[in-house]
Fold this protein.
Amino acid sequence: MSKKLYIASNSIGFKSGLKHILKDISITIHKGDKIALVGNNGAGKTTLLKIIANLIKPTRGKIEELATVWYFPQLHLDMLSSNLIISEYLASLVEEWWEVIVKVENEFNLQIDTTRTISSLSGGELVKLHLGIIFYIKPQVLLLDEPTNHLDIQAKEWLIKGIENYPDSVIIASHDTSFADRVVNRVWELEDGYIREFGGNVSFYREQKRLENEARLRRYEVALKDKKRLDKSLQLEAKRQEKNIQVGIKARQDRSMSRMDRGYLKSKAEVRAGQKKQMYDSRIQENKDILNELEPQIKKTVQYIVNHIPRPTTDIILDIRSGVIQVDKNQLINNIRLSLTEGERIAILGANGTGKSQFLKLLAQKQLSSGEITISDKTNIVYMDQTYSIVKPNLTIIDNMKVYNPKASLMTIRQKLREFLFWDDYQVNQLAGDLSGGQVARLAFAMISLSPVDMLLLDEPTNNLDIQTQDAIIQGLLNYTGTLIVVSHSLDFLERIQIDEVYCISQKQLLPHPYKIQDTRFHTKLLDILGKGIIE
């Protein structure tokens, strides 16, 4: 029995100025579909979701809606810090907003004071509030745009359970593989304005793309080798032709040979030369066609290199005793005991507001709120927050490089920028504020790559980054041999960069997780450590 059709589109497109963002999109959404929408930053995922939600109109084609649709935009940091009163926020979304509060109380046993501000809510409370809106409205097609951004692991768990139990259709634009894998059964890839559909989850899609890219690269390399062979054969043929010309000249000057024989030899040589030229021209055109087809699809990738000068593995890089992290008079973490040797890599997990980012900021300054901290003065620490704020939006790409690396020569800077795919004068003179999230990440890693890094501190490095950029960062971190401390709510990311040990902030304590991140017991124990379940 076929599932009920909710949405159908026929060759829709969307153009902004001279740029075709969506070119020819034909999709269907049926009851029960749980679909991940993936694509590089700037591919048009948000545009497509808004067209499905009828918030913007396509510039060509038609979309047929046979169901109720609700679109939730990304939860940006400004929402998490908003001073908007909860009742005002709900009233802007739902007419009978008080019914949402009733739903939240009934579904989650959570009472929310509607006179509070949005910023006073925890990540988990904000997700529950949004799920309350969903349960009240009950749209048949729910569209979620990067729903896990800035949400802690506990809040993410509530969102997963809400989607798993949702009876209708959900479309999720997300770069969070570990999240999407648990809730989707199909993948839409948006690339160059077109949609391709894959069965299975995002991990399956990524593996299929990897195999496709490897096969494409092999075909490209074979075509390049064939081109070299053709070029060499053409050079040899040109030499043979030159030799034949010389032989022909001598033959024509040989009066012992009849005029008919001389003419025959000339005609035979010309026919043979013409046949060879035709054969080579055909093979050269075929080779060009293959290269022209494949070259645009061979994506230029960048190696996110973080330089490091190795030390003995027994060297203590960081040692903390009785450490305390606090903001103003609010103590966030106390009695910290942590010791890291050369090359160790750890992750720090905890709910929003538990002090993870503040801990990294103070480590970057080689200090704590109180307690003993030992870090060598010669240890070069680089701290990247989740917005890559070392990149100044009011400066150009090349000026950001110069300011961060004042001793580097212009030649060195330009070479490094080329390595990170900022090629020409136009690119390097763009304002950083005009760059996409992936480009900002690329520039930030270019800026820190000119000097050796002894300890790298990363705070949610994958937020807002597409899968391709995440993969490049992961490969770069795998090649980094220095000490690494990462704050991230993406367990998939942490597992792929081969974290040695995970520490959890719970009840103002920094506690080592008893299991490795690859252990099947890790996730259940993590939720227990962080919140005695999912969220209290």
The CA atoms of residues 397 and 443 lie 7 Å apart. The longest strand covers residues 5-16.
